[in-house]
Amino acid sequence: MEQNGLIHLYVGDGKGKTTAAIGLSLRALGAGKRVVFAQFLKGRATGEAAMLQKLGAAIVRPQDGGKFIFQMTEQELAAQTQANLAALDHIRELAQNGCDLLVLDEAVDATVCSLLPLEDLLSALKERPPHLEVVLTGRNPPEHLAALADYHTEFVCKCHPYDKGVPARKGIEF
60, 93, 99, 125: least CB-packed within 10 angstroms? Predict the structure, then answer.
């Protein structure tokens, strides 16, 4: 029986979306599968990317301007969009050349913020190899993206230390 790759959508305002995607990546790597882990909208290096790379995952991170979206000029936003499109082209290449699991971390938010055109992402998903498992993370998925999902898991924040003034901690939140 031919195995078809499915699409996982991990969304919501709660903590844990990227963490769940990392867990699945570790499981796949442990089973000898080839993993590509792409991070959009992540302005700084993350501990998870470094460790996944050490374990054999290919890491893709579009060049980032080092600013939050709301701090970027129109020119910087346009440059970030181009960097994201170039990264998506590279990801498509990797997916066609022997990838079993593709994680598109924060790709949902990149589309919502218009820094990754939804049409390009949808096209990449529809044209992927039939065996390729894909995970997308983010907050508010567009309807067209949600319609493609085989798994749709929503993470809901009931409370978070940030609400009490606790900043993001290295090794925990990033």
Answer: 93
Q: Are 155 and 17 in contact (CB under 8 A)?
A: yes
Q: How far is the C-alpha of 84 from the C-alpha of 72, rounded, in Å? A: 15
Cβ burial of 148 (10 Å; 0-12, 13-18, 19+) is middle
pLDDT digits (tens, 9 = 90+) for 82-116: 999 999 999 999 999 989 999 999 999 999 999 99
Residue 4 has pLDDT above 80, yes or no: yes
Q: Would you list the domain boundaries of the chain?
A: 35-164
Cα 131 versus chain centre, distance: 19
What are phi and psi for residue 102, nearest 5 degrees? -120, 120
Q: How many CA atoms lie within 13 A of 28 on its CB side?
A: 25
Q: Which CATH architecture has domain 35-164?
A: 3-Layer(aba) Sandwich (3.40)
Q: Are 39 and 60 in contact (CB under 8 A)?
A: yes
